[in-house]
Input
Amino acid sequence: MDRMNIGLVGIGVMGQNLTLNIERNGFSVAVYDRAEGKVADFLAGKAKGKRISGAGNVGEFAERLERPRRIILLVNAGKPVDDVIDHLKPHLEKGDIVLDGGNSFFKDTERRSALLEKDGIHFVGSGVSGGEEGALKGPAIMPGGAREAYDALAPVLTKIAAYVKDDPCCAYIGPRGAGHYVKMVHNGIEYAIMQLIGEAYDVLRTGLKATAPEIAAFFREWNKGDLDSYLFEITAKVLSKLDPETGKPLVDLILDTAEQKGTGKWTSQNAFDLGVPIPTINAAVEMRMLSSLKDQRMKAAGILRGPAAAAGIVSSFVNDVRDALHASIITSYAQGMALLSAASAEYQYALKLDEIASLWRGGCIIRSRMLAPIREAFARTPAPANMMLDQYFADKLNELQPAWHRAVETAVRYGIPVLATGASLSYYDACRRDRLPANLLQGQRDFFGAHTYRRTDREGVFHTKWDE
Ligand code: 6PG
Output
């Protein structure tokens, strides 16, 4: 029997779609899943007539693969990945390659790499973005691990990835957990942009009393210019959808509590570890948490008062909202890139930020027209102090900032929460300030804890007896 080119473990929807994508691109695939019946169903269904074969047990699966084996895992992050590795490992040999394509925590990937590399087995932790459709038609792929393992996988990965003109949305990211780290930050940016879009929708819905289909039309319009992006495209579609039963916009009927699987939270946690400010991403994570306090919010709605109901917001406000969104999205990417830059130094990932921006241009959830100038900015200056200082983005922000300030001011005046948009604006305002009130804070610290302070007019470390 011919040996298959690629093995794939975990045939949920993502696994099935990726298998079909790999096969369509000219590679044979052996599939395996621990859940009984899944393989048979897949083979009898979507995989029928294709160069896809199934294995009933892990030994048979490993036996069926060409050497060195190239195995892709698409199982849930966390313990299932360790379980599958334990299960597979006795059947693997030196030189084999295991790629984890789930949303694994990068430190788990570091641990698993170290464990498998001891036996000469390569472990590639790879971000795969684009959801179910991306897996089938072409995702963005962010593989990290040993370079030689990537080289062995590259002919497959670069073929199945999304393309922007002739460029595949797949590139070697760096050693060990680098691929999953970059995917984590991708998701942090994803959280930020989604929250910013939600806030824009809220100010238009609550403040301007626009309907969901009217807001959909704004997003469709905005999606034609600098803000052209996958998330704007799907936002317009979600806002346009009518509920077949009631005829109302479906979005108006969806319960307002956001769920999360953890990648945004990890981004925030890690940014705290590295000391990198990413306030827009943090606000996005916090707003998801706040949204889930539904009972408390319902109760508070009858107790805590805000300003009088929004009235009199003029329609030119729509353009301010667009500009605020534009500027805030720039800061979201800037924060994500700053975090990548710090992580690259901390974990010795040697990340190439222009290549990362380039591969994010297609296939992934945060793909957008803006990533082309981001790529150019990082190609010009690989390690800038902040992406906002690149001339292209500085010009944009300078142009957008009056409307950005106006939009936040208006939202605040009407009591509409804009935690992420406000955080983006204050990030911008703080980053451009040559002097922040941390002087007072240092005085307070010295007051109660003799923590000392430094002066602007003299070298040295000082302590004052403040009460004397
Ligand atoms: C992607 C997405 C994908 C997934 C998120 C959702 O890049 O394709 O990011 O990985 O949809 O993990 O995350 P939450 O469930 O936390 O919103």
Observations:
- Residues 103, 129-131, 187, 190, 260-261, 263-264, 364-365 surround 6-phosphogluconic acid (CB under 6 Å).
- The chain is about 55% helix and 10% strand.
- The mean pLDDT is 97.
- The domain at 183-432 is CATH 1.10.1040.10 (N-(1-d-carboxylethyl)-l-norvaline Dehydrogenase; domain 2).
